[in-house]
TrEMBL record:
Name of protein: SDR family oxidoreductase
GO molecular function: oxidoreductase activity, acting on the CH-OH group of donors, NAD or NADP as acceptor
Family the UniProt entry places it in: Belongs to the short-chain dehydrogenases/reductases (SDR) family.
Superkingdom of the source species: Bacteria
Short name of one Pfam family: adh_short_C2
PANTHER family: SHORT-CHAIN DEHYDROGENASES/REDUCTASES FAMILY MEMBER
Length: 263
């Protein structure tokens, strides 16, 4: 392995790597030199991504993980410890969403979203810190948030509450663990087409409406997240912690036009 790779010798755990943004995060970190832990609730669905990572010359451990179960989280971190003996980077990506008008949200919808996105992220980060990062005196914890960390959208009440919680979690954990050399930040994507929301992008009228509200005039492409992820995962981000980095083409900056803008 070339030592010019910025993450050579590092181990990165990315939750939810069977598809979508999490899979891209794992591949991006592997390309930068890190060995990887991939996770899914169904190990079979990790085969492709594991093959790609091993094909790059990195090691890749596939682990079964359901972030709604503490036993599963504890077991996944123990497997990581047994296999690599260390963990430098944790990306809490596993997440879900249910889009509904607030009046139709059920008790179970709320529990599914909050348990997965907020409770799951907290306990995964807790286990990583407790089992591996604190003793090593080093860690880069990256919680995946969303533009809903900082703004509200109809149809996304529980999801937005979970992401607002993730933003707060990063601030509290950063203060808790800064003394141990662990930084905790949120990488908050804007609007990216994945399996989770593909149906929205089938409606061209909606895509045009969305694009018009984004200052850079398009939804995100997955490679828009590569650089921000690598920055937060790097040694060089050592003095950046408790922050929420929005990668959203500017939509969170406020999108009501004060004048007609033409190209
Ligand atoms: N797409 C966007 O525009 C966007 C924007 C902002 C934030 N995000 C967030 O970014 C993350 C990835 O989004 P995505 O669009 O790539 O979603 P996705 O395609 O639905 O993928 C979600 C991933 O999370 C895993 N997952 C779901 N529930 C889990 C659980 N209980 N335990 C463990 N893993 C679980 C899934 O793994 P298995 O099903 O294989 O277990 C899957 O790999 C999510 O947290 C999402 O909320 C997405």
């Amino acid at each position: 392995m070339s030592s010019s790779l910025p993450l050579a010798g590092r181990v990165a755990f990315v939750s939810g790597t069977s598809r979508g943004l999490g899979q891209r995060f794992a591949l991006t970190l592997a390309e930068a030199g890190a060995d990887i832990v991939c996770t899914s609730r169904t190990l079979d669905s990790l085969r492709d991504v594991q093959e790609k990572i091993v094909g790059m010359g990195r090691r890749c451990l596939g682990v079964e993980l359901d972030v709604r179960s503490l036993d599963s989280i504890v077991a996944a971190m123990q497997e990581t410890k047994a296999f690599y003996g260390k963990l430098d980077i944790l990306v809490c990506n596993a997440g879900c969403n249910v889009r509904k008008p607030a009046v139709d949200v059920t008790w179970d919808d709320w529990n599914l979203i909050l348990d997965t996105n907020l409770r799951g992220s907290f306990f995964l980060a807790q286990q990583a810190a407790k089992e591996l990062m604190i003793d090593a005196g080093y860690g880069r914890v990256i919680l995946i948030g969303s533009v809903t960390c900082v703004s509200g959208y109809a149809g996304l009440a529980p999801y937005g509450a979970s992401r607002g919680g993730v933003k707060q979690l990063a601030m509290s954990l950063a203060d808790d663990w800064g003394i141990h050399g662990i930084t905790v930040n949120v990488l908050a994507p804007g609007w990216f087409k994945t399996a989770q929301n593909a149906v929205l992008y089938e409606n061209q009228e909606w895509v045009e409406y969305l694009s018009d509200r984004i200052p850079v005039k398009r939804p995100g492409a997955v490679n828009d997240l590569d650089g921000p992820l690598l920055f937060l995962a790097s040694e060089e981000s050592r003095y950046v912690t408790a922050q929420t980095l929005l990668v959203d083409g500017g939509i969170s900056g406020g999108a009501t036009k004060a004048m007609v803008v033409k190209k």
